[in-house]
């Protein structure tokens, strides 16, 4: 740190790190990173922002495996953002230093950092080397379709890719690239959450069976099954927490007696609903005239 740079606050919990990484996806990352750990391989993240998802991924790196992250980190010296609005937002909120500060609050060592556009990764990462990849960088069709092609090349057959914002209203380009990969590039969805699709180019059935068994022990999520073009896809939904029970009602100060028969008899009989509505919808002058005619 240079003498002019002020120290950044260290986050104490993951909740204190800004980002878009929901609890259910944090749990699903842990599940897929553990499921693929047995056979081993490297881990890659495209798009880390301030490190929320990176910190979770970093917990699962095993001896001998490499963990690489790629991001522009708000700095266009190594490549440009695809959209101006995106660049403006990240230049205001993101820096490599802030990412490193957050990551090092949870881990002793930084991952290998590639500061640049994700399209450099196809040549930088060896083919068939990764067991888990998170695609969460640019959300433009033209970029995501390239990120998926890179993933197809470097992911091992049993590896899993997580695709962010595959169905979000403001990211139709991600949906287009994801479904294009499903129907034309052999990518097979294992499951979907509200925010991410988890897919592979290998077998889905074994992962899905393990996922069902895992979900039985997770009271905060439910699993249901869908068929897409004859292939099973699991849907995982975060359960809303039950509302806290309401405090017992105060005893009533004084019971109100049920209405007596004579009081009910004294009340004018109600007009049929159709007539009431019709009269109430007429302009007041006409309503008064109708009433006078009715009274006779
Ligand atoms: C949605 S954020 C990532 C969020 C993070 N994974 C999390 O869960 O908190 C997208 C990130 O991708 C980076 N990014 C956008 N376009 C990129 C590109 N073409 N190449 C590399 N990084 C890019 C941005 O700088 C930003 O940090």
Plain-language structure description:
This protein is of the alpha/beta class and 296 residues long. The chain folds into two domains: 225 residues, Rossmann fold (3-Layer(aba) Sandwich); 30 residues, no CATH class. Helices cover 38% and strands 19% of the residues. α6 links the parallel β4 and β5. α6 runs parallel beside α7. The protein is globular. The chain starts with 22 loop residues before the first helix and ends with a helix. The C terminus is likely disordered.
CATH architecture descriptor of the largest domain: 3-Layer(aba) Sandwich
Instruction: Write the H/E string, N to C.
Output: HEHEHHEHEHEHEEHEEHHH
Unique bound compounds? S-adenosylmethionine
Report strand %: 15-25%
Number of DSSP helices?
Answer: 11
Domain unit count: 2
> How big is the Rg?
29 Å
Helix content: 25-40%
CATH top level of the largest domain is: Alpha Beta
C-alpha termini separation: 94 Å
Q: What is the residue-mean pLDDT, rounded to a whole number?
A: 87
CATH superfamily of the largest domain: Vaccinia Virus protein VP39
Q: What class do helices, strands and sheet pairing give? A: alpha/beta
Sequence of strands across the biggest β-sheet: 3-2-1-4-5-7-6-9-8
Largest sheet: 9 strands, mixed
**Sequence stretches where pLDDT stays below 50 over 5 or more residues:** 253-296
What is the molecular shape?
A: globular
* CATH topology heading of the largest domain: Rossmann fold
Beta strands, count? 9
């Amino acid at each position: 740190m240079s003498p002019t740079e002020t120290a950044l606050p260290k986050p104490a919990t993951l909740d204190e790190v800004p980002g878009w990484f929901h609890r259910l996806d944090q749990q699903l990352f842990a599940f897929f990173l553990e499921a693929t750990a047995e056979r081993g391989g490297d881990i890659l993240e495209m798009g880390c922002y301030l490190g929320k998802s990176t910190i979770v991924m970093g917990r699962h790196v095993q001896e001998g495996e490499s963990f690489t992250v790629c991001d522009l980190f708000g700095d266009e010296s190594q490549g440009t953002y695809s959209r101006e609005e995106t660049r403006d937002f990240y230049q205001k909120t993101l820096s490599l230093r802030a990412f490193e500060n957050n990551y090092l609050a949870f881990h002793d060592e930084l991952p290998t950092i590639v500061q640049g556009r994700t399209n450099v990764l196809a040549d930088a990462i060896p083919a068939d080397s990764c067991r888990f990849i998170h695609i969460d960088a640019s959300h433009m069709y033209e970029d995501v379709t390239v990120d998926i092609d890179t993933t197809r090349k470097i992911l091992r057959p049993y590896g899993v890719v997580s695709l962010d914002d595959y169905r979000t209203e403001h990211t139709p380009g991600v949906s287009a690239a994801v479904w294009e990969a499903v129907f034309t590039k052999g990518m097979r969805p294992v499951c979907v959450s509200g925010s991410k699709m988890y897919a592979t180019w290998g077998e889905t059935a074994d992962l899905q069976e393990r996922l069902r068994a895992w979900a039985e022990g997770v009271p905060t999520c439910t699993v249901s099954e869908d068929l897409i073009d004859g292939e099973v896809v699991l849907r995982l939904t975060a359960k809303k927490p039950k509302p806290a029970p309401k405090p017992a009602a105060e005893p009533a100060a004084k019971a109100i007696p049920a209405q007596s028969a004579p009081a009910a008899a004294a009340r004018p009989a109600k007009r049929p609903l159709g007539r009431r509505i019709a009269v109430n919808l007429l302009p007041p002058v006409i309503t008064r005239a109708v009433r006078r005619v009715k009274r006779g």
